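[INFO] parsing input record for SsrA-binding protein
[DEBUG] input buffer:
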Amino acid sequence: MAKKNKSTSFVNRKAKFEYEFLESVEAGIKLQGTEIKAIREGHVNLRDGYCSIERGEMFIRSLYIGEYKQGNQFNHEERRTRKLLMKRQEITKWEKKVKEKGLTIIPYRLYLNERGLAKVEVALVQGKKIYDKRDSIRQRESKRSMDRIKKQYL
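[DEBUG] output buffer:
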């Protein structure tokens, strides 16, 4: 009997508050054996991660994938640089935008697809100004208060 794979997904929720999203794309990620096992166990943190482009290839840096408990001496470095698997056309297009407009590339979501492969949703973002962040807080709190009012009357 086939084992059902529950979909594992990790999201950088702080990114929606810090950045304005312009584009996003799905990319594969080159991992070692103990890294994929640690992802399945849930030892992932995307908060400090960012992407850089070097020699026509995209790399993800400072992405935390925790240590695999049964990995002994063959365990991986937790914050090592990992290569992203993307089409060269996408990389060059994004590289131009990052150089011209001063945009940033961040990992937004890491998940395992139905085949069990690790995928990263990478986003091209622009930093929000302080007044944009205040506006986001205001909208979020007004939505919460509206939901409370609806809950009382339903």
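[INFO] Residues 38 and 68 are 5 Å apart (CA to CA).
[INFO] shutting down worker
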